[in-house]
Amino acid sequence: MSPQIRQARPEDREALFSICLLTADGGADASALYSDPDYPGLVWSVPYLDFAPDHAFVLEDDGAVIGYVVGTTDTQAFERRLDAEWWPMLAEKYAGREAATKQDKNVLDRIRQPKHGNASISDRYPAHLHINLLPPAQSGGWGRKMIEAELDSLRKADAKAMHLGLSLTNDRAYGFYKHIGLSEIGRDEAIWMGITL
Known about the structure:
Elements: E1 4-7, H1 13-23, H2 39-44, H3 46-51, E2 56-61, E3 64-72, H4 75-93, H5 102-112, H6 119-124, E4 127-133, H7 142-156, E5 161-166, H8 171-179, E6 183-187, E7 191-196
Parallel strand pairs: 4-5
Antiparallel strand pairs: 1-2, 2-3, 3-4, 5-7, 6-7
């Protein structure tokens, strides 16, 4: 049976944590960079399962989740909701937790003092997404298919434009996003790419 894209479900939570960790080093395995394997997923995947489930999809192959795409129609509203409901819960859970690595510190700092995206980008491109695929899913057009599923979902919810951010050093992803029609819309500590819907 070939892989299938489906709506994410609550039972996919651990898979989202795992895939996020295994791709958090510019698309490569970041297991050695974090003392807690859940840290990347607390920021870049699992909150969407809880707070934007209509725009959360997974790629499943023979019962195993091998990729995900998550997003939201309104970045600023999503950030406000996380400020009210997600980060305070995590701040309590991780109170007193010390960072063992630089990457741990980045996540713990974000939990304790939430950092928002680039407002000038999200004003013009209100929706955003995150996508991560394990190596077996990184060929065969699955990245494009996952993004198309997400963009269709965002369009149906009346989103007008979408952005995403990527590392300044992630040349492979940059080329992929350009190839599927996204344009560079800004640079700061990240490269911002966007598309009108």
